[in-house]
Structure formats: structure tokens, C-alpha cells
Amino acid sequence: MMINKYLKEINEALSMGETAKDKMLSLVNFFKDLLKNNPGLFKLLYDFTGLAMWSSSFNSLLKDLFNDLSKMIEEKILSNSALGENFRNYSPRAVARMILGAMFGTGIQVILDSNENEILDALNAIQIIFE
After folding, report:
1. What is the pTM of this model?
2. Domain boundaries, the chain
3. 102: Cβ–Cβ under 8 A, 6 or more apart, which residues?
4. Which of 95, 90, 124, 131 is nearest to 110 (CA)?
5. pLDDT average per 10 residues of sequence, the chain (131 residues)
6. Are the CB atoms for 4 and 106 separated by under 8 Å?
7. Does residue 71 contact residue 94 with C-beta atoms inside 8 Å?
8. Do residues 8 and 65 lie in contact, with contact meaning Cβ atoms separated by under 8 Å?
């Protein structure tokens, strides 16, 4: 299934690098590459999101996808890292959800305005969680 392939690729990206910052950079680069070279996959995900609002079967699949992605970010990046001062009062789970939301939200903006390179570079700002 496409979702399993997507999860596997993200898991591989999260396995690159030694430090949490390296792993985050690898995840950011994965998303950037996907947005540049396969925007259709993101468009499909956003279509899937719309369907999930109305269909319980799609809702369950998408909820599981987001839970799995958040858990990967939490376990592979956040569980053994020192978060920046502004994020220390939040659980790793909450920060993982924020990261995922920021990446998908930025992805929507890139797809809607593919001529604006600065939007794609906004993904780099996610590194602020370590400062």
C-alpha cells in the first residue's frame, strides 16, 4: 500500500545522521525533495485528508498515518535530544505533532505557490526547536 511505502521512506530518512539535528535535517531534506520531485504524492495526501473529513474509513487511515509519523519523529528525533528553552515545557509528543503540522502546512503552501522558493526554505526553520 502507498501509505506503508511512504512510512518506510520517512523512517529511512529519520535513520540518517547521528544527532537529533542531523535526523531533523534529513527529514526536512526528504520533504523538500518530495515536494520538488513528486508533488503529486503530496496532492494525493491532501485529497486524502479532505476525504477523511467525511468518511470514517478514510479518517481512520489518515489518523493512523499521522499517529505513526508523529511517533517516528518523537522516537527518532525528540526522545534523546535537548529541546530548546522555549520547548522544554512541552512533551516530545506535542512537539512531534507541531513539527508534522508545520511540515504538512508548509507543503500545502509550496504546492499552491510553487514559484515561491522562500516557502520551501521555510522548512529549515523547524530547526529552531533545538535552540
Report:
1. 0.86
2. 20-130
3. 126
4. 124
5. 82 88 90 88 87 91 93 88 74 91 90 78 79 70
6. no
7. no
8. no
